[in-house]
């Protein structure tokens, strides 16, 4: 440890008097300053053993609170591989006055006589000049804290069954790759610095790193000797940083990194405690490797802790122009807590899981940082499975008000939890994996970066079965994506498998393309990186694996009020049945061997793939709601894509959201091999090119969807019972045999047609019918668009072209051929009674069948009638008779009641004065009281419909005086009209 640390500690101790106490005493009594037990505060002495004795059972600080004053740094030497440095007795708390106090894990570095003093080293030979330089330890330590790669070293552990432990206010300087200069000798990973030529920045970091061909491993440190293992291929490990070389500089070779910082190459765990323990206001600095930073049992509290702190500001160049590397964390799991615990305002970075919480736990106002470098010392190519922000390992948990920027945001392993008001931003995997029963995702921000599904129903992760990314992590719904899918590549076999990619002259070389326009400055090459003809036809599969057993169905799931978005639009290539690109909501399609199988969790297609077990594909998604979400800006993407396989039922889901700017709205499999039922799709489709793909009304109802296109059914829907087998597109009517049953409508009862079948259904089953609107009709012959539609006389239920006199049910919107469906408008049969006009009709010109004046010849008898006109309708079925006349009374005595009556006598009809025929309609004109001399002029209008029985009829309009004897009644300006409809 450099002497300046001791000087700084001494100055701070003067400024902060011993005994100062700024935090509450959690455990009953305060035994005071650690210096009173003989410990050094200037990191000059390895105080590991002394501290362990104070805090163990029987020690002076056991069961109490011990404090470190401001500036006090305690040096902790190595406990040995697999051991812990300090085991605390029950109810013991360590409390630091502020963040300048804490614990330094001993390191090893080159001494002042070396060419590069303070550089990390493991032996004297690392320190030039050689001989001359020496590799020394911090203080009087005899070993760095974690010297052996692959071994674990724990700072604070607990005595057996000890609970109620505490760590408060302290900093932990792990010295894991903390940016100190690198030793010259050794055989580690080579780095370099930019020489400053051209416009490059002198001293800028550069070195050997996995390049973009390594996919998710891009940026990992590598060296020629281990390149294939680290990057997947030796040629994918390259020297140089593009920002240096592109600016005209060169990446000069630099010393070797021989260890992860001065504290050694081993794995370090900071806190490993049991139940009822607390860690708060703690900074963990330069923690680079280990199974975890903090792990505790039940009823734990982790508050205001950060395991991501860097010891140096970036960038920084050492005196000899060697770049001081400062690297991001690569611990496997950041913070782990058990049942009924609380994580509050914590920042965590890890390569596997940032936060792991047990049942009835809560995490809020915390941050899961994005992953930086993945290294062979941390997560290797075979070990990285995608960083998870919050892993939920129990029910009744609450995840709220957190910010996550990890590969996967939230990954549950069970049900009954709530995730609300979280911001999950960035990361190529799904923002959340929906799994289990009773889960709620409310008012979250799920956006940016997702390659497959933004929200995934089931875990989509697996490993590529073959191809250029064989055995690497993949997302099952990422298609051929070069980084997270399973892309094509050239084979040297007779038939080569590849897809078109931008050639070497393009600025985006290697990216999949459809046309030259996709390749700036280059061309779309069908034979990219191949020799000979390139044939598309081999699909590499993202197989599930036992590493990812978190798959399965959902039940009573609620996803509401969320913003769901991805900025990636890569649906440009489709090969076979494998769709490429982003689905804002997608489903895992994994078939897995069940728990009885020797291959539990492995991919399978049938039971034969699972020794002693079965291939389980019967995942059920049932009774959930996606409501009030905004699926935002999905250009070239799909809003919701339902699975092709991997499930047995998809039942009882409601989708009522705003879908803005998608290539496709809801995509269903063309021929699903599982049950889809009782779906309700509603909400607003805004700028969606194809709202519904492969929709079938047997799946549910879309009548509440706003923004459907002309190709989509838009209908009023009811459900009745099929009284016989009904084919989709047939006209149906009420059954005369059974209540609430429907049967195929025949031409003889066309006026009773109630709708069109929206699905094919056998007898006794529920069937959805459209009572009106746009839908598919089943043709019984050739139909032209704009044709009026009637029921086929020889084939009940089917539609054919109609004409005047037919019962018209709708209009063809496109041409149809016999036995096939065509788009139609159905609005029900034309009415033939006196209460309703025909719904589908074209009015002919009205015919005047009588006009003029008449004088009724009144006698002393009542009901005197006068015949004015007659008309035969022939076979017309839709007829309206209209009459108008003005009546005048000029003389007579007594009361007068005048009526205008329509008589229907069938094919023959007697005169009005004979009373022949049936009264079809009657209007009372006026009543003149006895004694009045003159009525004046009164105008009468009458209108009646015909009987609609398709028979010949003769109509007569008669005016009657049913009152006393009158001689002065006249009819003037009279007229009778007949109007036919077809």
Number of strands: 76
> Which bin fits the share of residues in helices?
under 10%
Q: Give the termini distance in whole angstroms.
A: 102 Å
What is the alpha-carbon Rg in Å? 43 Å
* Mass-distribution shape: elongated
User: What structural class results from the helix and strand content?
Assistant: mainly beta
Instruction: Please describe the biggest sheet, giving its number of strands, its sense, and whether it closes into a barrel.
Output: 30 strands, parallel
Give the low-confidence spans. Answer: 1-28, 255-259, 314-326, 570-579, 831-846, 858-865
Proportion in β-strands: 35-45%
**Tally of individual helices:** 4
The averaged pLDDT comes out at 78
Helices and strands, with pairings:
Layout: H1 3-15, E1 30-33, E2 42-46, H2 48-55, E3 65-68, E4 73-76, E5 84-88, E6 93-96, E7 102-105, E8 108-110, E9 135-137, E10 152-158, E11 166-168, E12 171-173, E13 189-194, E14 205-210, H3 227-231, E15 237-239, H4 242-245, E16 251-257, E17 267-272, E18 278-285, E19 292-295, E20 301-309, E21 333-337, E22 342-344, E23 347-348, E24 353-357, E25 362-364, E26 367-368, E27 388-392, E28 397-400, E29 403-404, E30 408-412, E31 417-420, E32 423-425, E33 432-434, E34 436-437, E35 440-442, E36 445-447, E37 453-457, E38 461-464, E39 473-475, E40 496-497, E41 501-502, E42 524-525, E43 534-535, E44 542-543, E45 554-555, E46 558-560, E47 563-565, E48 583-587, E49 592-593, E50 615-616, E51 619-632, E52 638-641, E53 647-660, E54 664-667, E55 675-677, E56 679-686, E57 690-693, E58 700-701, E59 705-706, E60 714-722, E61 731-734, E62 741-744, E63 753-757, E64 766-778, E65 788-791, E66 799-801, E67 810-812, E68 821-826, E69 847-854, E70 864-872, E71 879-889, E72 896-904, E73 918-928, E74 936-945, E75 954-961, E76 969-980
Parallel strand pairs: 1-3, 2-4, 3-6, 4-7, 5-10, 6-11, 7-12, 10-17, 11-18, 12-18, 17-19, 18-20, 19-21, 20-22, 21-24, 22-25, 23-26, 24-27, 25-28, 26-29, 27-30, 28-31, 29-32, 31-35, 32-36, 33-37, 34-45, 35-46, 36-47, 37-48, 40-43, 45-51, 46-51, 47-51, 48-52, 51-53, 52-54, 53-55, 53-56, 54-57, ...
Antiparallel strand pairs: 8-9, 13-14, 13-16, 14-15, 38-39, 38-44, 41-42, 49-50, 60-64, 61-62, 61-63, 63-64, 64-68, 65-66, 65-67, 67-68, 69-76, 70-75, 71-74, 71-76, 72-73, 72-75
């Amino acid at each position: 440890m450099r002497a300046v640390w001791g000087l700084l500690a001494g100055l701070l101790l003067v400024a902060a008097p011993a005994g100062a106490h700024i935090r509450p005493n959690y455990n009953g009594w305060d035994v005071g300053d650690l210096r009173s037990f003989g410990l050094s505060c200037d990191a000059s002495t390895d105080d590991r053993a002394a501290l362990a004795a104070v805090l163990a059972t029987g020690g002076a600080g056991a069961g109490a609170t011990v404090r470190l004053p401001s500036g006090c740094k305690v040096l902790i030497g190595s406990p040995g591989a697999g051991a812990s440095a300090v085991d605390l007795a029950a109810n013991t708390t360590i409390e630091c006055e502020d963040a300048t106090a804490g614990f330094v894990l001993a390191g090893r570095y080159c001494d002042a006589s070396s060419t590069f003093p303070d550089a990390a080293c493991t032996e004297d030979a690392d320190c030039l000049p050689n001989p001359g330089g020496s590799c020394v330890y911090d203080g009087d330590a005899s070993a760095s804290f974690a010297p052996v790669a692959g071994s674990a070293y724990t700072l604070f552990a607990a005595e057996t069954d000890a609970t109620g432990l505490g760590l408060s206010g302290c900093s932990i300087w792990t010295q894991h790759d903390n940016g100190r200069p690198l030793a010259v000798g050794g055989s580690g990973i080579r780095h370099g610095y930019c020489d400053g030529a051209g416009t490059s920045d002198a001293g800028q970091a550069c070195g050997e790193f996995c390049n973009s061909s390594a996919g998710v491993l891009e940026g990992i440190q590598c060296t020629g000797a281990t390149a294939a293992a680290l990057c997947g291929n030796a040629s994918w490990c390259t020297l140089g940083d593009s920002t240096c070389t592109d600016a005209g500089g060169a990446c000069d070779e630099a010393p070797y990194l021989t260890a992860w910082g001065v504290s050694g190459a081993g794995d370090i765990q900071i806190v490993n405690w049991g139940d009822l323990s607390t860690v708060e206001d703690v900074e963990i600095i330069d923690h680079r490797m280990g199974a975890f930073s903090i792990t505790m049992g039940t009823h734990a509290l982790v508050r205001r802790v950060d395991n991501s702190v860097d010891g140096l500001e970036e960038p920084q160049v050492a005196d000899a122009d060697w770049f001081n590397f400062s690297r991001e964390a690569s611990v496997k799991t950041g913070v782990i807590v058990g049942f009924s615990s609380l994580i509050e305002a914590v920042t965590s970075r890890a390569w596997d899981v940032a936060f792991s919480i047990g049942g009835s736990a809560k995490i809020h106002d915390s941050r899961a940082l994005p992953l930086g470098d993945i290294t062979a010392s941390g997560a290797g190519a075979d070990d990285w499975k995608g960083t998870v922000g919050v892993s939920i390992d129990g029910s009744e948990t609450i995840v709220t008000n957190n910010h996550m920027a990890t590969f996967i945001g939230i990954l549950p392993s069970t049900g009954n939890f709530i995730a609300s008001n979280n911001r999950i931003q960035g990361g190529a995997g799904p923002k959340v994996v929906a799994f289990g029963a009773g889960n709620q995702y409310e008012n979250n921000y799920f956006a940016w970066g997702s390659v497959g599904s933004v929200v995934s129903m089931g875990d989509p992760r697996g490993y590529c079965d073959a191809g250029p990314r064989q055995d690497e992590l993949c997302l099952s719904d990422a298609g051929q994506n070069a980084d997270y899918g399973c892309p094509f590549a050239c084979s040297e076999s007779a038939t080569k498998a590849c897809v078109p990619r931008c050639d070497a002259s393009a600025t985006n070389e290697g990216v999949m393309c459809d046309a030259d326009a996709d390749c700036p400055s280059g061309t779309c090459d069908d034979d990219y990186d191949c020799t000979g003809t390139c044939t598309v036809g081999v699909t590499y599969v993202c197989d599930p694996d036992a590493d990812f057993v978190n798959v399965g169905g959902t039940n009573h799931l609620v996803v509401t009020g969320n913003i769901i978005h991805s900025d990636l639009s890569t649906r440009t290539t489709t090969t076979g049945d494998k769709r490429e690109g982003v689905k804002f909501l997608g489903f895992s399609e994994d078939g897995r061997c069940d728990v009885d199988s020797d291959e539990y969790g492995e991919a399978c297609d049938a039971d034969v793939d699972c020794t002693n077990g079965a291939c389980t594909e019967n995942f059920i998604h049932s009774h959930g709601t996606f409501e009030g979400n905004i699926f935002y800006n999905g250009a070239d993407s799909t809003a919701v894509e339902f699975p092709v396989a991997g499930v047995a039922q998809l039942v009882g889901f409601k989708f009522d959201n705003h879908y803005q700017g998608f290539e496709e709205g809801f995509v269903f499999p063309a021929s699903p091999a599982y049950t889809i039922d009782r779906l309700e799709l509603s909400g607003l489709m805004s700028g969606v090119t194809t709202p519904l793909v492969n929709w079938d009304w047997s799946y549910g109802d879309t009548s509440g969807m706003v923004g459907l296109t002309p190709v989509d059914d838009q209908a009023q829907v009811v459900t009745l019972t099929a009284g016989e087998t009904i084919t989709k597109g047939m006209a149906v009517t009420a059954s005369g045999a059974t209540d609430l049953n429907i049967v195929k409508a025949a031409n003889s009862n066309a006026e009773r047609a109630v709708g069109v079948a929206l699905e094919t259904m056998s007898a006794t089953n529920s069937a959805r019918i459209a009572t009106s609107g746009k839908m598919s009709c089943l043709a019984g012959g050739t139909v032209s668009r704009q044709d009026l539609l009637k029921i086929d006389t020889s084939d009940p239920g089917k539609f054919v072209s109609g004409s005047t006199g037919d019962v018209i049910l709708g209009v063809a919107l496109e041409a149809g051929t016999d036995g096939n469906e065509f788009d139609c408008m159905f609005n029900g049969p034309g009415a033939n009674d006196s209460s309703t006009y025909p719904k589908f009709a074209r009015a002919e010109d009205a015919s005047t069948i009588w006009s003029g004046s008449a004088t009724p010849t009144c006698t002393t008898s009542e009901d005197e009638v006068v015949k004015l006109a007659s008309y035969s309708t022939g076979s017309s079925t839709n007829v309206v008779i209209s009459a108008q006349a003005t009546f005048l009374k000029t003389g007579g005595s007594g009361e007068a009641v005048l009526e205008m009556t329509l008589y229907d006598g069938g094919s023959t009809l007697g005169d009005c004065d004979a009373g022949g025929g049936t009264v079809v309609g009657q209007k009372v004109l006026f009543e003149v009281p006895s004694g009045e001399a003159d009525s004046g002029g009164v105008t009468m209008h009458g209108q009646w419909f015909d009987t609609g029985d398709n028979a010949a009829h003769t109509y007569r309009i008669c005016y009657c005086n049913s009152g006393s004897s009158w001689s002065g009644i006249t009819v003037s300006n009279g007229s009778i009209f007949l109007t036919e409809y077809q």
